[in-house]
Structures are given as C-alpha cells and as structure tokens.
Amino acid sequence: MFSEYLTGYSIGIHKSYFESNPDVSLTFWDYANSQDLLFANYGASYFFYCFIAEKYGGATTIQNLVQNPVNGTASVEQVLAAYNVDFKELFRNWTIANILPENISQYSYENITLAMTTKQFGLSSIPRTEDSVTFWGTDYFAFNSNELPFTFDFQGSNAEFLVTAIFTNTTPFSIKVVPIILSVDGLGTISTETLGISAEEITVAISAYTKSGSADHDDYHPSPSQTYWYTVNPNVVNVSPGNITVTDHGETISVLNITVVDINGYTWDTADHASFEILTQFGGSTGILSSLIFNSSVGYWEGTTNISSLEEGTYKILYRFFNATSTGIGHSNVITLIGITILPGNLTLSNRGDMLSIWNATVFDSKGYIWESADGAFFEILTDLGDRTGINGSFVFNSISNYWQSYLTNISSLPEGNYSIKYYFFNKTANEVYFQEFTLTSTTTGTSDSSTHITTITSSTTQPSSSDSISTSTLPRTDAATSFIGLIWVVIPFIVQIKRKNNAKEKK
C-alpha cells in the first residue's frame, strides 16, 4: 500500500472505509468475511506506514521493513530499534494521529487529516456499558465538554488494553494527551478535576493489543473482539482510608475497617467490584492486588494479600468500588517499609556444658534505630536439615549493655552434629528471621582411669548471597510511620569456640 503513496495513486475508497471502521485490526486482514473490512484493512495499512515514514526515517525505513525477513510486529520493532520505540507505543501514537488535524502537534501527520468515525456523547452520566474492540483495532469516544468535570472509568477483560484521553481546546489551540494507566486487573480512571485541566472536546481512544511475539492471534487464527466496560461521570461514593496491619509474621498485609458511603448517606455492603491495589509512592503499580469483602459481623470492608515481594520503601493502597452507576476510589495512609539488620550474638556454655547462653545480639533498622523492645524476641535450635529439636528460648534486652541476650538454655540432649539457631524478632506488624549455624563435636582425652569429654561448639556467620540458605527472603515492612518493621539482611562473620567439659568418674 505504501507504494501507492510514493506513486501518487489515489486511495480514496480505502481511506473512506478505514475512516468508517477504525476498529479494524491492523494485523489481521479479514479476507473472507467482509469486503468493507478488507478495504478498511488496506486503508489502515496505508496510513500506518505513512505515519512510520513521516516520523521515523521516510522511505528508507519502509524499504528496510520490506527487506527484513522477519514478519509482523517484531519486524517493525527491529527496524525502529534505533528510535527506542516499541510497537505498542508506536501504535498508540498512530491512533492519536488518526483523529488530529494535520501538522498541529508532535502526534499529527504532516500532510494527512482523517475523519475517523467516533461514538459521540455529551457529558451526562453514562452507566456502566459493555463494548468490544479487536486486537490492534481502536474505538474512539468523543465527548462535548461544555459541562465539567469529566470522569471516565474503564475496565478491560483479560486482554491487554491501551486507553488514551486527548483533551482539545481551539481558543487558543492546545492538545493534551494523557494515557490512562491501568491496573494489573485492567482498571483505570481519568478525571479533569484530578488533572486540573479543562477542554472543549475530549476524545478517548481504546485499543486491545497483544505483546510482541504473542500467539494470541495471526492472519489464520484471529481472536474474537475483546470485551471492556466503561462508565462516564459516575456518582461518587466516599471511601475511608481504613486501618492497615501486617500479619502472618510480616508476610501478609490486611486492610480493615473500610467504609463506603454514597452521596445520600447510604453505606455500601455490596458492590459489583471491590478491590485494593498496592502502589508505589509515585502511584505506579506493584502488581499486588486483591479483593475486598464486606464483613457483616463488623460492618466494614476488609481484605488481605501477600506482600513478601515488596522491597524497602514507601507505598500506599488504592481502593476501588463500583456498581452500574457509581464509583468510589480511596487511598490508605502511607506505608513505609524499613530494612532491619540482626547481628547475631556470641555463644557460651556453662553448668558443665549443658547450658547455652547467647550474648550481645543487636537489632537495628536502616535508619540506625536500635530495637530496645519487641512483641516477640526468641530463638529455636534446628538441625542441619531444618528440623526442630524442641529447644528454644527468649531474648531480653539489657539496657546497660544495649544488647539482646538469652541465658542458660538447656542443650544437654543434643548429640554432636551441625545445628543452627533461628533468631525471631517481630512486633505487631512484622517478623524477621536470621539463621546462625554452629557445630557440636565431642572428643575424649586422658587415660582409661581418668578421662575428660570435651564438646566444642563452633559458630560461624557468613554474608548471605543469592545461593545462601541462611537468610530468609522475607522483606521488612512497617505500618504508617509509627512502627519499625523489616527484613534481616547480613551480619559480620565471626567464629567462636567454646569447650564443654564433663569429668567422668574415676574407674577403679
């Protein structure tokens, strides 16, 4: 089709069919089912390559595409690699160009203006509505924004979607393009009130796409249209921030006591959708989300999810609720995850070698704050295979020496062998663990009439690495800015040897 552009051949019929069918797939040509769509396919291909030529190197780039032995979207990405653009963003920019007048913005064609068919609406409320679009096709929604504010809520099905809002003013002329960021479950929203902007016309472009190299569809096995839902200017409901706790020794976050109240004062106890998502401090998704359920016994919404993958940093939680006509979005207070370090203690034996004491253990966070108290501070002894020996004890903080210590734990039942001490420190919102390995060995010295049994305990601590098994992968975490929680990372290597002596009775 691009050859027609170079030779000046008229493509009027293909242009008009593409303008009437903007949702035609760019990558799947409908040879059999519809002549109209086939003509639209020709038009889409023509204008796509015109866009590439205008923005990325002219006819030389098109020649490189033709000569590239690789086909499909991967071919385009290879040829345009020097421009640092992937096919998804190239496609998004092209869909924007298709609805703009020529040569008025960085997105526009230089010499082409299309009259794409759009679904026209005012700014009155539109209840939750279902629609669909093909892979690499586009639906356009145009809204007359004489009445502001404007809110657009989107939810995609299992497919991937690109959703873009274009805000246009004519006096003076201005265009603002805002991609709508979707959560991992396909939810997104945009609001002129939140953005602090106004516009005479608002266009929303919705496209479904496949990842590069995906087998979701091809020319011979097309996938069906992909379903999505949208709501315009929904009724707003208020969502409280709730309370946050970290449970299961720091592995799970729980959101509690969330209320949802509409403009009439009615408290929601049901919703078509109720979820929460953990975001970075800048609003990006961490990929962690879960459902919220209404607990009728306490009258609040609540939910839990695993957060062991989160690194140290600052986060917040986004709540989403909606039904057919109403939407509510809320945020939690800030959550700060702070790293914790444990320096394991020195080991000594006493009472003829039967009692183990641990001295001078230290716990502090990444800000240098030394833990002087904890909801739980104890240890247990494990075999070298990680099995429990049934021997455990508690730590106490010695405010004089500023160390955690444990006194006189009976280990007389342990035979010689390799063991580890598993340190546990946690407060109400977090738990951290460290493993300190040690070895018990026994020798006998002296004569048959007078012998001494010596048990040696050797304790070593090594810097954890990706292949070490002595450090857990649990991450440190804290709730709001009030509690210190976190993961234990590393310690100073040391070796301690202690001798335990048992004097045997003299044989006569």
How many helical stretches? 7
Structural class: mainly beta
Report the radius of gyration as a whole number of Å.
33 Å
The shape, in one word, is elongated
Total strand segments:
32
**Residue fraction in strands:** 35-45%
Q: Low-confidence spans: pLDDT under 50, at least 5 residues?
A: 445-454, 461-508
> How would a crystallographer describe the biggest sheet?
6 strands, mixed
N- to C-terminal separation? 109 Å
| Approximate helicity band | 10-25%
Average pLDDT taken over every residue: 78
Domain unit count: 4
Describe the structure.
This protein is mainly beta. The chain folds into four domains: 2-97, no CATH class; 119-212 and 225-233, Sandwich (Jelly Rolls); 236-336, Immunoglobulin-like, CATH 2.60.40.10; 340-503. It contains seven helices and 32 strands. Strands 10, 15, 16, 19, 20 and 21 form a six-stranded mixed beta sheet that branches. Strands 26-25-29-30-31-32 form a six-stranded antiparallel beta sheet, with no helix packed on it. α2 (12-20) crosses α3 (35-55) and α3 (35-55) crosses α4. The chain is elongated. The termini are far apart.
SSE blueprint:
Layout: H1 2-7, H2 12-20, H3 35-55, H4 58-67, H5 72-79, H6 87-97, E1 119-121, E2 126-133, E3 138-144, E4 151-156, E5 160-170, E6 173-179, E7 187-191, H7 192-195, E8 201-209, E9 226-232, E10 235-236, E11 238-239, E12 243-247, E13 252-258, E14 260-261, E15 273-280, E16 285-291, E17 293-295, E18 300-306, E19 313-322, E20 326-331, E21 335-337, E22 340-343, E23 346-350, E24 355-365, E25 376-383, E26 388-394, E27 396-398, E28 403-410, E29 417-427, E30 430-446, E31 451-460, E32 495-503
Parallel strand pairs: 1-3, 10-20
Antiparallel strand pairs: 2-9, 3-8, 4-7, 4-9, 5-6, 5-8, 11-14, 12-13, 13-18, 15-16, 15-19, 17-18, 19-20, 19-21, 22-24, 23-24, 24-28, 25-26, 25-29, 27-28, 29-30, 30-31, 31-32
Helix pairs in contact: 2-3, 3-4
